[in-house]
């Protein structure tokens, strides 16, 4: 800044005012400063500014996998809200590993991020309590934290699955299978609960033989379909618990040339191009990411007047984002 001031023939304070976007600067002087900045290639020192302002202008985003389409949409929504606040986003993948989640989260905190958005990988998050007491707000998204109180943004997993099962019931199905993710995952458990509740509401007994819960892979999917399609009363319809399970099931069904009514939880980018088109219970990852980011920045900045979320010590909030059923054909196949 001293070099810029010397080149422009102005005071250091004038350069500071121009760099910080203050309005009370003579336009002739502002032009001279901006020309000197361009000529010298000056860039403000973000670290020094952060020390002065008490904020780093960064937030941390911890996802299960940044390459997953669901989380990439969520991440982009977080970035858009952060951009409105002049803030950059650091993102990392936990790979469903609690130790890796902790390592990344604390690494972000060491770099003095202004807040964290976390998709939980494990059941314990008490390691974040010292950071939260030090003033770093944390918002959990997609799943709740295991053992601390914090803001959350969740999908209506139970209601969405009920909607999918009700859709299959309305098209005449009574033997409806469910293939979900590993049972220890919160969303998998909530979606199984919705499946069970929908059947019970229709007066249909819940049957363990129609349910499989395991990480999606070709072997587990093949075994699940073997079980569902065997015997005198095979399943005539299937609800898949997430997009990866749906893709695995579609591949296996194509290999077998088998036909089942199918509803997937989560949409697929090319789901409308399949024959028949894929019927899905669609989440809204963009709405989830935006809601989580807005909650976080309300905590960071103080929020709008009268908004309790703007108080870092205020009560925690839980926002639930709804789902919608998109009928494209696969869920409307009648039972034989």
Automatic annotation (TrEMBL):
The keyword Transcription regulation applies. PROSITE patterns: HTH_LACI_1, HTH_LACI_2. Keywords: DNA-binding, Transcription, Transcription regulation. Residues 1-53 form the HTH lacI-type domain. Gene3D superfamilies: 3.40.50.2300, lambda repressor-like DNA-binding domains. It comes from the Bacteria. This is LacI family transcriptional regulator. It comes from Nocardioides luteus.
């Amino acid at each position: 800044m001293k070099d810029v001031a010397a080149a422009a023939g102005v005071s250091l304070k004038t350069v500071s005012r121009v760099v910080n976007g203050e309005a009370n600067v003579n336009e002739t002087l502002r032009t001279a400063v901006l020309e000197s900045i361009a000529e010298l290639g000056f860039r403000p020192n973000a670290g020094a500014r952060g020390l002065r302002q008490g904020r780093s202008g960064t937030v941390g985003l911890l996802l299960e996998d940044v390459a997953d389409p669901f989380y990439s949409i969520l991440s982009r929504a977080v970035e858009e809200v952060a951009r409105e606040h002049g803030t950059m986003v650091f993102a990392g993948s936990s790979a469903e590993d609690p130790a890796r989640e902790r390592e990344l989260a604390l690494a972000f905190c060491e770099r003095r991020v202004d807040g964290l958005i976390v998709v939980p990988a494990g059941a314990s998050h008490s390691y974040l309590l010292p950071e939260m007491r030090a003033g770093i707000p944390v918002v959990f998204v997609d799943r709740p934290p295991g053992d601390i109180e914090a803001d959350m943004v969740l999908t209506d997993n139970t209601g969405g699955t009920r909607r999918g099962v009700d859709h299959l019931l309305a098209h005449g199905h009574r033997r409806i299978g469910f293939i979900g993710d590993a049972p220890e995952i919160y969303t998998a458990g909530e979606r199984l609960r919705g499946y069970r509740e929908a059947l019970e509401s229709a007066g249909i007994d819940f049957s363990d033989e129609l349910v499989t819960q395991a990480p999606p892979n070709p072997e587990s999917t093949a075994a699940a379909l073997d079980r569902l399609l065997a015997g005198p009363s095979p399943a005539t319809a299937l609800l898949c618990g997430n997009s990866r399970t749906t893709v695995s099931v579609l591949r296996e069904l194509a290999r077998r040339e088998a036909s089942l009514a199918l509803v997937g939880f989560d949409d697929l980018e090319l789901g409308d191009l399949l024959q028949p088109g894929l019927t899905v219970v669609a989440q809204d990852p963009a709405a989830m990411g935006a809601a989580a980011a807005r909650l976080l920045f309300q905590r960071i900045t103080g929020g709008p007047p009268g908004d309790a979320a703007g108080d870092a010590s205020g009560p925690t909030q839980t926002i639930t984002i709804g789902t919608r059923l998109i009928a494209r054909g696969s869920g409307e196949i009648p039972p034989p």
